[in-house]
């Protein structure tokens, strides 16, 4: 009775929580842009609804206005024409702004001319609107439309000059920011001088920053010196960061020394993108600075980008410093990301000198990050086998099981036969996931020495879970023909699961010696075993025989008859 009362109260509590969450989240789900709101508008609207929806664009409720513009957009041609008309002719600034915003969505992006031409013309006109909000929405709309698949025709490039006018003369900073971003997305060379001017002289920080980012999208090195000046001298870190990003995109070697100086910037985000930019340029002159400054940075993101930059440059001088980063466990827990980044780059270098540091890091790293070090050791290959083999030995460590799992996985991926004996010894590990990885590794290597130990574990260890048994039997299947005799012996095991998976494995191998025992397995009292044996036998058939077996549901005698016939006809 008490338990029933408790369950009832618990259900009521959960229902109350769901109700409260519904009240809180409903406004979030009903007001916004993009695909999220598409789940709200499931009704079908016709041209008869257009006047009402246009009227709703004047509502004081922003949710009502947004839904109306979204629904008009979703109607396609007629609704979009209505939005264009409102954006062009409506005296109400609120309605004009909502109409211009409503002209952007997936539906409009997919439109072709002639509506598309009219749409661009409306947006260009809206750039000169007396309402600041309309100008901002128009520039933003043009920015989002500026994709490689969309831009390139005269009607769309006609927006460049009006956007330049907004960038240089609009009294609203937000409009100038949107114009700079739109010009960067369009990538027209006419925008180069105005963007340089805005980056250098605009009083608003955000405009200078947006202009700096935009210049990186225009493949013209005339902006390099202006970007260098900004990255070194602008008082706003966002502008310095944007300039560094753009210099990395332009890949001009004149930017190397200024970017090296930017590695000492007071803002970590600037130092981070400066390191990334140096990696994109790929000049070996930056190696020493990346090693001495960026890899020693207290901001872990800077270290990550420095490691990746050194990997892109590919200078072997980076190996020892990257090894130092990999075994640095004194910094904050977030530094694990930096250790992972360094490990990935060491894997690319493939230098055997990195094996010991990577093995140490694999042993000490937090569980979720151990795979980075393991994969780096896999890339180094055969020289890493002895170190990985040592890591298979259980240690008195809370997370050592994760280390053993990753070590076994890495040894399997390397595939060197020198790992067979250590892996065989690891078959007595007490962790099932470690055993799974060990068996998988032995299967990948495919050495016959593993057959006996695996069979012994299957026959003697009653505590093995079925998943581990599957990995072991699958390993025997991957070893192939040499394991057939051992598998045939296991086909009479007293555990039905082993018998069933062995039947499946024999079918995978496809050795004719298995046919007679598999036919006998059709009489197994356990349906799982019989079904697997049936499926395995189908693999030995010609396509026509396999189809007949399925259609006529062959039984034991049918398979016997088929096999006698096949034996008579075989050479």
From TrEMBL:
**Which ranges does the record mark as transmembrane?**
none
One GO molecular-function annotation for this sequence?
Answer: oxidoreductase activity
Pfam families assigned: HEAT_2, HEAT_PBS
* Name the UniProt record assigns to this protein: HEAT repeat domain-containing protein
- The species is candidate division WOR-3 bacterium
